[in-house]
TrEMBL record, chains A, B:
<dbReference type="Pfam" id="PF01842">
    <property type="entry name" value="ACT"/>
</dbReference>
<dbReference type="InterPro" id="IPR045865">
    <property type="entry name" value="ACT-like_dom_sf"/>
</dbReference>
<feature type="binding site">
    <location>
        <position position="185"/>
    </location>
    <ligand>
        <name>L-homoserine</name>
    </ligand>
</feature>
<comment type="similarity">
    <text>Belongs to the homoserine dehydrogenase family.</text>
</comment>
<dbReference type="InterPro" id="IPR036291">
    <property type="entry name" value="NAD(P)-bd_dom_sf"/>
</dbReference>
<dbReference type="Pfam" id="PF00742">
    <property type="entry name" value="Homoserine_dh"/>
</dbReference>
<dbReference type="Pfam" id="PF03447">
    <property type="entry name" value="NAD_binding_3"/>
</dbReference>
<keyword id="KW-0028">Amino-acid biosynthesis</keyword>
<dbReference type="GO" id="GO:0009086">
    <property type="term" value="P:methionine biosynthetic process"/>
</dbReference>
<comment type="pathway">
    <text>Amino-acid biosynthesis; L-methionine biosynthesis via de novo pathway; L-homoserine from L-aspartate: step 3/3.</text>
</comment>
<dbReference type="GO" id="GO:0050661">
    <property type="term" value="F:NADP binding"/>
</dbReference>
<feature type="active site" description="Proton donor">
    <location>
        <position position="200"/>
    </location>
</feature>
<dbReference type="InterPro" id="IPR002912">
    <property type="entry name" value="ACT_dom"/>
</dbReference>
<dbReference type="InterPro" id="IPR019811">
    <property type="entry name" value="HDH_CS"/>
</dbReference>
<dbReference type="InterPro" id="IPR001342">
    <property type="entry name" value="HDH_cat"/>
</dbReference>
<keyword id="KW-0486">Methionine biosynthesis</keyword>
<keyword id="KW-0791">Threonine biosynthesis</keyword>
């Protein structure tokens, strides 16, 4: 059984190491040895732990090699990975990938090619590192119905929010530290702005609901506007702020969104700290199932790849039909984002004078938004200004947007603070 | 594809319902229909939702039916379930069971028979209800090494501990309420004393470490001695008390134990509340993976059974070799319980007089136990007595046992309170 690897970076190296270290174990599982024939790298002269004979800088040497029946893609990025995967599938090769961008943006197309060619594309490693998320959705949930997904799938933002909360430090400061420690990229925008989370939610939701969710259909907010004040108020109120990937499937409509969210300490997601990832699946019959673990890192990722490789190899060796892949089957109907129905936390600076709260409460009331609690603290921080925090009961996004527009026109408003959705 | 079910109780009924409701889905997955031919019940005249034609009170009608290639056992209890399963395997039938007692006590024997006969026995439903624990250990961990298991696998005790903590109520009172609500059995001893947890840990550990762990080899303490005072002190100190199933595999030795444990709020297991179950697997390459969900209930259990049924049916239909089952392969070496190395919480009532703390500290010191903190509160509750709470650094169980023996002989000891191990 011969395979090729596209990509000789950290993950490719970890996969190489693991396959060699676990040789005997793999032989036991498959009944025959698993051999890596070639690894595609950009720079042949760079020093690495993979012997020179196994390296190539020509993708065609792997994609069009008749002896290779499975290709692992760990290059990352949309192109040329997408093109290589496409060619490999057209050559009737099974593909295993860790590439969230390619799957989120082209999963639909690639699955169709795979089906036509009688092969398969597997991507456990594209979401949640070493946590068997896709496997659980695919197999354990095959005869159940996933109704909701609640997930923390970006280690960088979760690390930043955790540090802000634990050490009461500012966003900018913690971000700089995260960059120094390698938990955030030099250009952290994909993580911070929620794009990485959006890609992953598109993959998970497409799979869970047997449909196609395009990343651009997902309402997305990042954590860049979360201030330490919000974190502190959340803490005081018994909540944590997490960047959540949320999707729900009811009445034929899919609600799908990524944004910072206040969740109560009683939620099992509230104790997911640092770079850890977690996904809560709410299923019709199984109820809530939560999976938690290391969402990144070369070895956890290599393990996820290896799980997929073993399963695909098993399929290749024994010509077993594969029945579990339900993604991208049906069209989806996305719920408009202004129909989101949830609780809200808003924070704003107002003039410190009588009747201010009444004016704001009036606007909320006129928009049928009912207040669940209000905090106004004595403060000397900004002269003549008072900081107001309001928590609402459940209401529609549309009503909330309208109320905020009106509040922003009030002469008593000194400075708009923030809006954070509250979920249980 | 015809199957038989041994047991027509709540789980059997839920499985019947699910297989009928998900008919089309199952057909898609298997490529042919899944048919329940017969259900074994004790009382044929009892009213149920399964048509009379499908019922029998003679197990042989299922076990020896040549048309039936897979038998699901959901009777519960050791006998006659164990005997029926054994006969079914000898008849070369695949077996799927939810029976933790049978697997914990006879898993080794039954696996041997299954291997000899070229069939298999699956038992996802025996631990953790609808959480895919066994599947994750079996497949996702196949080429990784599980080094530690930390689990909450008994809903009854977790419900009681959660209620005691949240509502500051006594053990006895909460237990009675749990019995009324159906969360505890009329005879709750199997749960309360940790026996149910012990069975489940035996199954998980046998599977994770590819060996045979017998329930009687597991050091076990229940929650019957946990008082509200302990819960309160734990809370004050930033801990929760949970009945944990713990096992570790290092240097060829397996440490395996069940007891109430103080865990810090930062542990992801600390937020597992009520009847929920969770298992934390610490693996060599994947790192920590935690699975959480509903640990019981007819429908979650039926879903776990159905996962196993589909997998086994797939194997039967396509004659695929099965490679993943590594349990019961190697002999085990169990670490003696007095070599446990952990932190301890002790609580005791002493005479309220000078020099008392010094006497206790002296005994601890002589046994090489170092104190990490001490709480002694002013109290008028018991005249002339003071309550002392001591937390230690890590030490050996043997040293701790010896120190406690000596403390119990001190004339200044008024009343022994409790000992609870602290784990991170």
């Amino acid at each position: 059984m011969k395979i090729g690897i596209l990509g000789g970076g950290q993950v490719g190296q970890a996969l190489w190491d693991t396959i060699h270290m676990e040789k005997e174990n793999i032989l036991n599982i498959l009944g025959e040895p698993l051999e890596i024939k070639k690894v595609l790298v950009r720079d042949l002269s760079k020093k690495r732990d993979i012997p020179k004979d196994f390296l190539t800088n020509n993708p065609d040497e792997i994609i069009y090699d008749k002896e290779i029946s499975l290709i692992v893609e760990v290059m990352g990025g949309e192109e040329p990975a997408h093109t290589y995967i496409k060619r490999a599938l057209e050559e009737k090769k099974f593909v295993v990938t860790a590439n969230k961008e390619v799957i989120a943006l082209h999963g639909d197309e690639l699955h169709k090619i795979a089906r036509k060619k009688g092969v398969d594309i597997a991507f456990e490693a594209s979401v949640g590192g070493g946590i068997p998320l896709i496997k659980t959705i695919k197999e354990a949930m095959a005869v159940d119905k996933v109704k909701e997904i609640w997930a923390i799938v970006n280690g960088t933002t979760n690390y930043i929010l955790t540090k802000m909360e634990e050490e009461l430090r500012d966003f900018e400061e913690v971000l700089r530290e995260a960059q120094k420690l390698g938990y955030a990229e030099p250009d952290p925008s994909k993580d911070i702005l929620g794009l990485d989370t959006k890609f992953k939610l598109a993959i998970l939701s497409s799979f869970a609901y047997h449909t196609t969710i395009k990343p651009e259909e997902i309402y997305t907010e990042g954590i860049e506007k979360i201030s330490l004040r919000d974190i502190q108020y959340a803490k005081e109120l018994g909540y944590k702020i997490k960047l959540l990937a949320i999707s729900k499937f009811y009445n034929g409509e899919i609600e799908v969104r990524v944004h910072p969210t206040m969740i109560p300490l009683s939620s099992p997601l509230s104790s997911v700290n640092g770079v850890y990832n977690a996904i809560l699946l709410r299923a019709e019959k199984r109820g809530d199932v939560l999976l938690y673990g290391e969402g990144a890192g070369p070895y956890p990722t290599a393990m996820a790849l290896l799980s997929d490789i073993l399963e695909a190899t098993h399929t290749i060796l024994y010509s077993v039909p594969r029945y579990y892949s339900f993604a991208y089957l049906y069209p989806s109907k996305i719920k408009p984002s202004d129909e989101i129905y949830t609780r809200y936390y808003i924070r704003l600076w107002v003039k410190d004078q009588p009747g201010v709260l009444a004016q704001i409460a009036k606007i909320l009331g006129e928009n049928h938004i009912s207040i669940s609690s209000v905090i106004q603290k004595e403060t000397s921080e900004k002269e003549g200004k008072a900081e107001l925090v309001i928590l609402t009961h459940k209401t529609y996004e549309k009503s909330m947007s309208k109320a905020i527009e009106e509040i922003k026109l009030l002469p008593i408003l000194e400075e708009w603070g923030s809006l954070i959705r509250i979920e249980v």
